[in-house]
Amino acid sequence: MENAPPPAEELILLDRELGQLEIRRTQLLTRRAWLLSAMQAAQPAPQNPFAGPAPGFGGGHVPRAPMTAASAPDASPPSAQNVLLALGGILLTIAAIAFTLVSWGHMGIGGRSAVLGAVTALALSAPVVLLRRGLVSTAESVAALGLVLTVLDAYALHRAALPAADGLAYAAISSAALAALWAAYGLGLGRLRIPLPAALVAVQLPFPLWALASGAGPLTLTWSLLATAALDVAVALWGKGRGVRPMACGAAWLAGAWALLSVGAMSVTAGDAADAVRPGVLLLAIAALALFAAWRAPSPHTVAPSVAAGVAAIAAVGGVVRPAVPDAWAVPAYVLCAVALLAVVRVSLPRPMVLGLASASGAVLAGGTLWALPPLAVTLLGPVAWAERAWSGAPAGVRDALSADLPWSWTTATPLVLLTTAAVLLAARRLTIADRPWHTPAACAALALTWAATFATPAALDLRYAVAVPLYALLTAAPLALAARPTALTRLSGNATRPPATAQPGPGSALALTGLGCALASAVSVSLVALASQAATFAVLGFLLVLFGAAAALATGSVAPPVSACAAVVFATGLAGAVAAAFELPAHQVALAVLAVPVAVAVLAVRIRGHLTALPMEITGAAAALLAVGLASGDAPALALVLALCGVIAAGTAVRPDRRFVGYAAVALFVLATWVRLGASDVATPEAYTLPVTVPALAVGVLRRRRDREASSWTAYGPGLAATLLPSLIAAWGDEHWLRPLLLGAAALAVTLTGARQRLQALLVLGGSALALVALHELAPYVVQVVGVLPRWLPPALAGLLLLAVGATYEQRLRDARRLRDTLGRMH
Predict the structure, then answer these.
(1) What residues form DSSP beta bridges with 437?
(2) What is the spatial distance between Cα 82 and Cα 86, in angstroms, rounded to a whole number?
(3) Ranges in the chain, pLDDT < 50
């Protein structure tokens, strides 16, 4: 029981609560304003010693109001100071350059030297005094001006005292001198940030400029880049000053990468081993510098220089070996050097260095694998050309069966490269990255590469066609067997030591999928290769049918069995087509042979219902039936027969309780078969096309009404009746003869009487409408004649009388219309 106060008392309570909330809100807003002012104030507001305490606060602290946007300064004093100093330094620098380049000739040699020397000495000594007084920013600006003046001094010295000196050589010497001067100046004045980075920039120039001045070749110029990179590494490891080490690290990477690419190109293009030795020595020097940098660098920065060292070492040794081997074996030479590097890095080195060197070897192995992919693609996809010239005669060698235009000499080393990479992956499958073993990806890649190497071997050895085809067939069986045997895949992936619960890979594991993919690729390729010979075609397709059929029956898991079953259906279809083609049958008769496959699949699906291979196999069988329809499309009678047979197969499948939905497809196929047959017989009567649809539809409607007496007549009989009545009615309105309207009217009358007797709304409405329209069609000529005889005033007069009669009996007609509506509404 709930006792609510009177409205007046409840209103007083609500006003009291709202007042308390307003007081609390005011207190919280006051506290918030004080907190904001305390946070924004840089220092306490100045107190007026002559002012008394604020009234109402008892001499307490008055909160300082926050600074508004209008009173806030646009820039802080340090920012404004830096801008002014920078602008001043820039202007002075421009003035000094203008004095040196423009006004230089108006003074004698002594005056010019005295002016520049005095200004430079003043600019370089002024920061000492400024730093003592704490003016660091001003000292930075003046020091920058001094550095620029030293460059102008060097230029002036060359123009005035050493005009005959070589420009590049003088630039090399002066840049080295300036780098030393700026480094000493920066180290002496440790608080300045500009001199040491400027010295680092200047030190990048002496060695390359010296090499260019001496007319050295590309190799010597690359040595100068390496020397510059060595200086940068030293600065990056032991340099001082803010920002100098990161800048030196970037400079070292830039100079080292330029040197590595340049000398790598020299090594690759060397004509013989003697010419490759000198670039090789430089590559080894680059590798040594990178290893030294990796050894001394902190842990996060160790991997990258180790990768560079590994690449340089592989390029050095491989570049010397490459000229001594045929061109087809150049890439394998680098691959073997990468494997050798992997063996060397097993010594006790820091883990980041081992990872970097291993990554360098992996990069070279990946490049070799990419090099081997084109010939592998030709081996797999080259036989596609046999589809246009099947059974034209088997070639002598397998290379002619794959591709006659490819220069096969450069592919002889493909299997070796692929096998080497696979072996390295298997050996490294237990390597951990970030404490996570990656044995499964390595095992998958090793499995795929091993299969690819074996599949490329017949072409590399140029085996005879009769030998290569059985070998390709066996290369289909091997990966398929691995995909069907998880225990073998477990041993391959290195999981044998795991607990029994997780020892075997799952049915959809990456290893099983990899093996299955290899098997399917082999099967497609060998089936295309076999098209060269009729005997080979029958043998290979039969073998593949048995192989994948056995895999579908014996394999475990959720991937291999259904995929194998679908493949078996595909090869069975190909075999049926090949048998029919062997008898030189036309395409529409080959379609009848192909239909044997869907029939066999439908029968087999009944025996294995519920198995995971049943539905995929039936779908593939349906695709084979579509192929048969396409083959028979050129001959209308044969197409009608094929459609009817497909309807029989679908109807037989629909007998199963779990395949009832296929019944709709069966009805559609039967109707299509009937239409095609009628069209082939030049039948143009629309009833011949619509009645085959109406009769089954009405039969289905009768069955449904027997099962469900509450079902609507429109749902049960409406589509079937409309399928015939509407096209026949349209044809009757354009028909000048009397037979079709008479038959249509009789049928419509029968439908109407049946609807009235059985109280079925759909039959009554459709039949009555059709009957009325047929009657109107038959009376139309007479109506036209009568209207033509009558006077023109008579039709309006008759219409007026009709309106008067309807108006006089409006209520009675309205009651009759309602009674008719209610009668129709009570029908089904």
Answers:
(1) 432
(2) 6
(3) 1-2, 42-85, 87, 101-102, 432-437, 492, 496-508
Provide DSSP, 571-623.
HHHHHHHHHHHHTT--HHHHHHHHTHHHHHHHHHHHHTTTSTTHHHHHHHHHH
Q: Rounded distance, CA 768 to CA 750, Å? A: 10
Q: How far apart are CA 205 and CA 661, in angstroms?
A: 82
Distance, CA of 702 to CA of 721 (rounded, Å): 13
Q: What is the pTM of this model?
A: 0.67
255, 223 contact by CB (below 8 A): no
What radius of gyration do the chain's Cα atoms show? 48
């570049």: which residue's tokens? 319
User: Tokens in use for 203?
Assistant: 């030190």
Distance in angstroms (rounded) separating the CA atoms of residues 366 and 379: 20
Tokens 């009709």, located at residue:
802
Q: Are 647 and 622 in contact (CB under 8 A)?
A: no
pLDDT (0 to 100) of residue 779: 66
Across 7-44, b (16+ Cβ under 10 Å) vs e yields: eeeeeeeeeeeeeeeeeeeeeeeeeeebeebeeeeeee
Helices (H), 429-559: 439-461, 465-484, 486-493, 500-503, 510-529, 534-554
* pLDDT at site 744: 77
Length reported for the chain: 828
Cα atoms in the Cβ-side hemisphere of radius 13 Å centred on 713: 20
User: Which tens digit of pLDDT belongs to each residue from 125-166?
Assistant: 878 877 887 777 778 877 887 888 888 788 777 777 777 788
Q: How far is CA 427 from CA 494, 549, 551, in A?
A: 10, 35, 30
**What one-letter code names the amino acid at 665?**
A
Map residue 772 onto helix, strand or coil.
helix
Question: Alpha helix locations (H) across 655-760?
Answer: 662-680, 686-707, 713-733, 739-758
Pick the closest to residue 109 from 159, 75, 152, 147 (CA basis).
159
Per the DSSP assignment, residues forming a β-bridge with 433 are 436
Half-sphere exposure for 506 (CA within 13 Å, toward CB): 4
User: Can you say whether the dihedral through the CA atoms of 488, 494, 500, 504 is positive or negative?
Assistant: negative
Structure token pair of residue 520: 């399917």
How far is the C-alpha of 268 from the C-alpha of 470, rounded, in Å? 40
> Residues 6 or more apart from 686 whose CB is under 8 A from it?
727, 728, 730, 731
Q: Could you give the CA distance from residue 510 to residue 516 in angstroms, rounded to a whole number?
A: 10
Q: Give the pLDDT confidence score for residue 526 in this predicted structure.
A: 92
* AA letter at 64: R
Find residue 464's DSSP bridge partners. Answer: 397
**CA nearest neighbour of 181 among 161, 158, 202, 208:** 202
Q: How many CA atoms lie within 13 A of 439 on its CB side?
A: 14
